[in-house]
């Protein structure tokens, strides 16, 4: 039983072979090696496999023999479909070498080759972008197989989602040469394109022009057009890519971006707001389609992408011409660049359908189109910034001219105002000079009056004081009379002191004092000066503590002014200190100054009083402790005298603790 089944199976196979041989004789291809390359796309037979489920055994059977039909084009145009196709032909290789069968299309996911030799042996080989480059027998971005010498019946199972497929036979050496030339062309193309990308990025970083960054993105999209969509040489570097997805996605992205670039580069909004709004609407539509296409099948998406590309070309040509009419010098050149692009794409379409003209250097016409487009747009971009620079310089010169004119006008106005002001100032100066002369005269009169009044007041007071002293010594007086005379003497002395202070304020205020310096022995001066206060200190039972700490015992200063300063300070300390208290008087030599200090333990001076204590006729909140009078002039005089000696006055005081006033004189 088993032997019978084996015999029947062999008979069936022999019948299949005989029938299949009869069906291929009509498509016999004779290869004698006389030519380097022969295109055979219009000499093979096709069978559509809509589901992709037919097997080799089925398609070689007599049932499918009549279903094959002869191809009508030099390049196999299978259309945008999900169907599989079987290709059939018989080749008689009359040379002793292999013949190379090339399907010149990188976008084929899977290609299966079955061929049967004269000996009846069936061989199977696989290619396609889903197969890693290292797993391919022939390392090429295209799908290439080696057919042996002799007669072979060949079947190819193809699933295409891309452009038409050129089908070629090559001599091995001719194929190797063409393949190497193609790889070299790919390298040169990528080198030029990436040079433009890097140059644009460099210009973006150095010049801070965002348009260069946008342009580098456009160039990158053009690289993807060639490397993935048309030429497909991306498979040399990145395996296992889903070229079908990229084949539909890159055009959708590129159409949107290049239309946006058109609006930005040509500044359409500046020249025609209506055109800008219309094109912006197309961009929104392209952007929506870029997402929506994922919900449609490949046969639907690809024709729509093609229509969108044509619309985009039309938009850019129209916009370029439109803005050129409005004064944009780049508009016509931009339209011309995309017209050249369109011409090369049309040549690519002609090649797809007729096989002519052949590729130059192994690159598709779309690759040349993108390269030329990139170079032209680079030129236009540089020209745009050059023209912008000229416009900016022109505007700058115009602005500078306006500034100069305005400056000259302002100078003229200022000169007129200056002359007018000079006249006004001269007139005003004359008036002020007259008033100043009058004030000087009045001041002199005032000085004379002050001196006369002070002299007339002081002389009788001094006379009265003299007579009271005589009465005290010469007359026999009762205790009450002596007390009355003492009160009179005190009041008269205070009056004389007040007159002296008024004269001092007047003298120091008008700077009539002529400063004269002399050498002063510090310790002797201080001891002599303190003797004048013995009676007053004795009256209030107060004690003076003198501290002298100096390296150089002598100093240069005005003895009278220094005495007057210290008199005022010590008088105030005596007035405002309680009975039976101490007052510390010190002289300290520092690096640059000689400090005279009078420190008491009286009521202290408030912060508010410290702000006004050196002003004339300012009476502070603290009161003398023994009914003494205070004119409010002593500290003002002290400050003026200190300043005339090129010194500074410093106050340290706390309420309830006491006050220290320091006079700092230069050594």
CATH topology (fold) name of the largest domain: Rhopdopsin 7-helix transmembrane proteins
Total DSSP helices: 17
The domain tally reads: 3
- Radius of gyration, rounded? 58 Å
- What is the SS-derived class? alpha+beta
Shape: rod-shaped
Helix content: 55-70%
> Which oligomeric state applies?
single chain
The unreliable regions are: 1-26, 510-514
Largest sheet: 7 strands, mixed
Mean pLDDT: 84
Overview of the molecule:
- 57% of the residues lie in helices and 17% in strands.
- The protein is α+β, with helices and mostly antiparallel strands and 667 residues long.
- It has three domains: 19-170, Immunoglobulin-like (Sandwich); 181-379, Rhopdopsin 7-helix transmembrane proteins (Up-down Bundle); 514-666, Histidine kinase-like ATPase, C-terminal domain (Heat Shock Protein 90).
- Strands 1, 3, 4, 6, 8, 9 and 11 form a seven-stranded mixed sheet that branches.
- A hairpin with a 5-residue loop joins strand 8 (110-116) and strand 9 (122-127).
- Helix 5 runs antiparallel to helix 6 and helix 5 packs antiparallel against helix 11.
- The protein is rod-shaped.
């Amino acid at each position: 039983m088993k032997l019978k089944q084996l015999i029947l199976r062999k008979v069936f196979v022999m019948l299949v072979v005989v029938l299949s041989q009869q069906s291929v004789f009509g498509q016999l291809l004779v290869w004698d090696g006389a030519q380097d390359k022969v295109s055979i796309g219009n000499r093979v037979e096709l069978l559509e496999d809509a589901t992709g489920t037919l097997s080799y055994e089925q398609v070689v059977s007599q049932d499918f023999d009549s279903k094959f039909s002869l191809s009508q084009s030099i390049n196999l145009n299978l259309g945008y479909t999900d169907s599989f196709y079987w290709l059939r032909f018989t080749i008689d290789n009359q040379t002793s070498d292999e013949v190379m069968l090339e399907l010149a299309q990188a976008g084929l996911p899977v290609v299966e080759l079955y061929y049967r030799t004269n000996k009846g042996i069936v061989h199977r080989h696989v290619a396609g972008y889903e197969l890693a480059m290292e797993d391919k027998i022939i390392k090429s971005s295209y799908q290439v197989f080696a057919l042996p010498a002799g007669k072979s019946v060949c079947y190819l199972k193809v699933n295409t989602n891309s452009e038409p497929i050129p089908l070629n036979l090559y001599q091995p050496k001719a194929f190797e040469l063409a393949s190497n030339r193609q790889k070299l062309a790919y390298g040169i193309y990528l080198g030029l394109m990436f040079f433009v990308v890097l140059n644009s990025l460099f210009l973006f970083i150095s010049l801070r022009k965002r348009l260069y960054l946008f342009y580098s993105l456009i160039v990158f999209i053009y690289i993807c057009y060639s490397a993935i969509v048309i030429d497909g040489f991306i498979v040399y570097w990145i395996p296992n890519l889903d070229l079908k997805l990229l084949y539909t996605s890159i055009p959708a992205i590129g159409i949107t971006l290049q239309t946006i670039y058109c609006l930005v580069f040509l500044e359409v909004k500046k020249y025609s707001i209506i055109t800008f709004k219309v094109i912006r609407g197309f961009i929104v539509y392209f952007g929506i389609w870029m997402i929506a296409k994922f919900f449609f099948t490949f046969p639907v998406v690809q024709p729509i992408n093609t229509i969108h590309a044509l619309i985009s070309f039309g938009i850019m040509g129209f916009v370029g011409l439109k803005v050129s009419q409005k004064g944009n010098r780049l508009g016509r050149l931009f339209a011309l660049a995309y017209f050249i692009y369109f011409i090369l794409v049309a040549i690519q379409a002609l090649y797809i359908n007729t096989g002519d003209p052949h590729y130059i250097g192994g690159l598709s016409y779309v690759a040349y189109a993108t390269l030329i487009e990139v170079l032209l747009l680079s030129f236009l971009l540089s020209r745009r910034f050059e023209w912008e620079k000229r416009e900016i310089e022109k505007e700058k010169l115009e602005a500078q001219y306006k500034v100069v004119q305005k400056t000259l006008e302002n100078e003229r106005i200022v000169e007129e105002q200056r002359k007018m002001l000079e006249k006004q100032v001269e007139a005003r100066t004359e008036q002020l000079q007259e008033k100043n002369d009058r004030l000087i005269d009045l001041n002199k009169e005032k000085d004379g009056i002050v001196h006369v009044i002070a002299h007339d007041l002081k002389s009788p007071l001094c006379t009265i004081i003299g007579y009271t002293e005589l009465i005290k010594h010469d007359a026999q007086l009762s205790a009450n009379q002596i007390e009355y005379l003492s009160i009179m003497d005190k009041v008269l002395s205070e009056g004389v002191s007040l007159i002296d202070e008024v004269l001092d304020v007047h003298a120091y205020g008008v700077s009539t004092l002529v400063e004269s310096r002399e050498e002063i022995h510090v310790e002797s001066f201080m001891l002599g000066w303190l003797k004048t206060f013995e009676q007053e200190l004795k009256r209030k039972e107060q004690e003076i503590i003198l501290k002298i700490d100096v390296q150089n015992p002598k100093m240069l200063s005005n003895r009278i002014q220094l005495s007057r300063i210290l008199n005022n300070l010590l008088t105030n300390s005596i007035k405002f200190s309680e009975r039976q208290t101490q007052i510390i008087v010190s002289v300290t030599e520092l690096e640059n100054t000689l400090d005279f200090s009078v420190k008491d333990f009286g009521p202290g001076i408030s912060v508010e009083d410290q702000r006004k204590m050196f002003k004339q006729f300012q009476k502070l909140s603290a009161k003398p402790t023994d009914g003494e009078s205070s004119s409010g002039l002593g500290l003002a005089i002290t400050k003026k005298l200190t300043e005339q000696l090129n010194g500074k006055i410093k106050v340290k005081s706390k309420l309830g603790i006491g006050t220290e006033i320091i006079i700092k004189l230069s050594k």
